[in-house]
Amino acid sequence: MYEISIEGKLRYASIKIEQVTNELPGILFLPHWHHQMEFYRMLEGEMMLTIIDETVHVKSGDIVVVNPNEVHSAERITASVSFVLYQIDLFSLTDNLADIQQKFLNHMFHQRRYFLKRDPVLSTRALPFLMTVEAGWRAGNVEAVESATRLMLVELLRQVKTKYPDQGAYKTYKHTLSQLKPTVSLMTFRYQERITLDILAEMTKVSAIHYSRLFKGVMHYTPIDFLNQVRIAKARQLLLTTELSVGEIAFQTGLRDSNYFSRFFKHYNQMTPTAFRKKYRIS
Fold first, then answer.
1. pLDDT for 47-65, tens place per residue?
2. Euclidean distance between CA atoms 68 and 173, whole angstroms
3. What is the mean pLDDT of the chain?
């Protein structure tokens, strides 16, 4: 039901790999962004991956890239999905410029602002490299993992790249993300607190109307619906991994009243919390 790490641990590698399998109803993951680059290699099932304003239909065998600082989210199409996620920290990977590959990557990503296109060619070109990266990960070989990752990115940038078309628009987009980041963090990690639109707008130092427009423009949710989805995701996790009562889970997710929580949960999951726990929990 949940994320399963691929065998092998690399404490200091600039790439992390995990296999994700999900059979639960609802959104696969909510809109978010980070400075790492990600590759999704689909193993089974189908999902819709939304990246900024582009929605990509991802099916078994596909490989899709998410460049750094691109807001992305996903919904399942099939009842179950399974994919391998490769997360690459480009800053870590390019911090030592003694190597010609690292110089090239630093120039492309950090100076010229090139990024990888979501193109069918990418799947064909990336697969053998990702398999090599994964083999190094399983063997616990940091140098092999990072060397294969650099080689992959160099080759892909030579063949499947494009430049940010409008540097002004890109700077505006990144500025908006920086504006929203404190409120997204509040809703993601302190969802049990009382959070209102006015509180979120005040944190961003704009009006509530302007904040709502900014938020929905990049996250594709209203702020309150995003908060509701965060609370529902946490409620599902607690139902499946703890012995807490429905009332206790209601309190821990910031919804307080168990009757309201049950109605709220059913609205998003088409079943009560108790029915959800009975159907999906693995004893």
1. 999 999 999 999 999 999 9
2. 12
3. 90
Q: Class for domain 3-163, per CATH? A: mainly beta
Query: d(Cα 31, Cα 229) in Å, to the nearest integer?
Result: 10
Contact (Cβ atoms closer than 8 angstroms) between residue 138 and residue 88: no
Residues 136, 121: Cα–Cα separation, whole Å: 24
Question: Which sequence spans correspond to the domains of the chain?
Answer: 3-163, 166-283
The phi-psi region of residue 258 (left if phi > 0; otherwise alpha if psi is between -120 and 50; otherwise beta) is alpha
Q: What is the CATH number of domain 166-283?
A: 1.10.10.60
Sorted by sequence, the CB contacts under 8 Å of residue 185 that are 6+ apart come out as: none
The 10s digit of each residue's pLDDT in 92-114 is 888 766 678 888 888 888 777 78
> Model confidence over 179-190: pLDDT tens digits?
999 999 999 999
Prediction pTM value: 0.89
